[in-house]
Design goal:
Elements (H helix, E strand, L loop, with lengths): L2 H11 L8 E2 L7 E6 L16 H12 L4 E2 L1 E2 L6 E2 L10 E2 L2 E5 L7 E5 L2 H8 L5 H8 L7 E2 H9 L2 H14 L7 H16 L2
Parallel strand pairs: 2-8, 3-9
Antiparallel strand pairs: 1-2, 4-7, 5-6, 7-8
Helix pairs in contact: 6-7
Length: 194
């Protein structure tokens, strides 16, 4: 198999979704409160155009976020490569971003964390609704994309059981903020439901 064959195979194996497609993750049920944005690849057409430079800066700051303000979810152990880049010099992403929608409160956009790369290096123009939502982000307000995604996609009993398991994984050691989120959510849930 030559380099071009490998490149073509990579394209076919890479995720592609039209902007505003309802979110679905690896065989799960469709999550209508999350709309996909920026899931482009080399063999599909996409909208291109200019975006405000401040969008890239805001995306960069959102990507740097750590708890208590965290827009990352579905982190992977290895990077997923950009199919628009030339072989041998590919950008990659290792998480998704969950961005609250300003046009539909209680709904979200789900994008690759390298969406800024797709915009700056490949000319992708996300929908105006996404741009407005990113520009409206309050980076000082606590937000946890992992907890929010779980609250949207799981029923409360499943979430309690999952978080008990996760919290127990870290018992006996001092958890970091990423690990502490599960115990904090359980404590708050139990307090509010007692």
């Amino acid at each position: 198999m030559n380099e071009q064959d490998l490149h073509n195979l990579l394209i076919l194996q890479s995720p592609y979704y039209e902007d505003f497609a309802p979110y679905r993750y690896e065989g799960s049920e469709t999550i209508s409160r999350i709309s996909r944005v920026g899931w482009i690849r080399a063999d599909e057409s996409f909208t291109s155009g200019r975006v405000p430079p401040s969008l890239i800066k805001k995306l960069y700051l959102a990507k740097l976020s750590t708890l208590p303000v965290n827009f990352h979810f579905h982190k992977t152990r290895s990077g997923i490569p950009c199919t628009l880049c030339e072989p041998g010099n590919r950008a990659s992403f290792s998480s998704e971003l969950l961005i609250p929608r300003v046009d539909l409160p209680g709904s979200f956009f789900g994008s690759q964390s390298m969406i800024d790369h797709l915009i700056t290096d490949h000319g992708y123009k996300p929908p105006d609704e996404f741009i407005d939502s990113v520009m409206s982000l309050d980076l000082s307000k606590p937000f946890d994309a992992v907890i929010t995604f779980d609250e949207i996609s799981l029923d409360i009993d499943s979430m309690v059981e999952l978080y008990k398991i996760r919290a127990n994984l870290f018992s006996g050691k001092v958890p970091n903020a990423e690990e502490q989120r599960y115990k904090n959510w359980l404590d708050l849930h139990l307090k509010n439901n007692s």
